[in-house]
Amino acid sequence: MSQVGDATARALLRRLAVEQAECRVPSLTAAIVRDGRPAWFGGRGQVDGAPPTPATQYRIGSITKSMVAVVVMRLRDEGALRLSDPLEEHLPGTQLGHLTIAQLLSHTAGLTAEPPTDWWERTPGIPAADLIDRLGPGELKHRPGRRFHYSNLGFALLGELVARARGTTWLKALQAEVLDPLGMNDTTARPRAPHATGYAVHPYADVVLPEPEHDADAMGPAGQLWSTPQDLARWAAFVGGDTGEVLDPDTIAEMREPVGVDDGDAWTGGFGLGLQLARVAGRRLAGHSGSMPGFLATVWADPADGVGVLFMANTTTGMRGTLLTDLLDILQQYEPRLPQEWQPAEADPDLLALTGLWHWGPKPYTLRLLPERGLALEPVGGSGRASRFVPRPDGTWLGLDGYYAGETLRVAADHLDLNTFIFTRTPYDPAAPVPGGVTGWHA
């Protein structure tokens, strides 16, 4: 499974070994994906008397949510629903029907974190109809849309929405539409051999306690699944954009966009549409963590660098929060990527004539050509509004990012019209149609 050099592999394995030994984890696996391909695997500890392998199953907990979210987005892309739809349109009778699908996906619906049942992670689940019958206004803890508040219950509702939309169970829909096409054949609802047993490690002694494992039933979409390092490696590549025929890459990119943030003294994490987000040391990571009694797991993708990383462990708690970013740091230190070679390209003469200096009032900007007739408008000195634009068939350009995302750029002989803002070759060119007129510069 290794595509990294021996020195890199040794450094990665040592970091994993330190985590397993110092955090007292019964067994621990980790893997790295680069450019969609497995690049490294490491395992420490014992599962049934042998080291864990890429085929050893662990429970992945809430990583299940991100997979269920993909089915919801497939329904959206098919036109079967809109993210702005209230839940009532697709799952009537919940007493929470005013919440939108987008709010449920992004944990901004204001729902309670846990369902109105016994501790759902440690007890057998109840059917979806029974869970829905228990829901009332008391399950709403915050005004919808007000803030990020993680909700396992919200994904139980999304799983039932999927089941009704597809006319089958959420699990069968997920299997047919996501897991099977991606070749994730070892991702299952219940464990199969070889699999790790979930343990709690005593905080003050080197002894363990087996944790229970049940069918969560209605709460299954929130954290039911088991998987393997080799399957989660494929999932990391998927989240990074290698979506195959399962989802349009633009849709997974939309899922990675931040909707809510986990607020605190200084926030570095948040949530998109079914995907957890983190910003660490300049990296923009997307994926999900997972926690169930006896198990911890996390998978991150860094689309900008084409890399993914994951770990799976059979312990209830106690691991550090830096293992995966440390592994990425080691990879970057030992085997940094080489930049793509620069090569000259063809340029449309009319577009080439547009490049150079433009002014938004007195503020100077530069316009550059990008591949495939794209444009980049950037403030001189780097402070201000910058956006990239792609051409449209009607001769205008569409903003991709920044302040002008989604806005229209029109090009005339003597000016640029960017959603009513006029850019001119010289500051407030009196020959251009600057709104309000130009009287001329004076002392």
TrEMBL record:
Residues 20-319 form the Beta-lactamase-related domain. Transmembrane segments: none annotated. GO terms for molecular function: hydrolase activity. SUPFAM superfamilies: beta-lactamase/transpeptidase-like. It comes from the Bacteria. Keywords: Hydrolase. Pfam families: Beta-lactamase, DUF7586. Its EC number is 3.-.-.-. Residues 348-425 form the DUF7586 domain. PANTHER family: D-ALANYL-D-ALANINE CARBOXYPEPTIDASE (PTHR46825:SF7), D-ALANYL-D-ALANINE-CARBOXYPEPTIDASE/ENDOPEPTIDASE AMPH (PTHR46825). This is Serine hydrolase domain-containing protein. The lineage of its organism: Bacteria, Bacillati, Actinomycetota, Actinomycetes, Streptosporangiales.
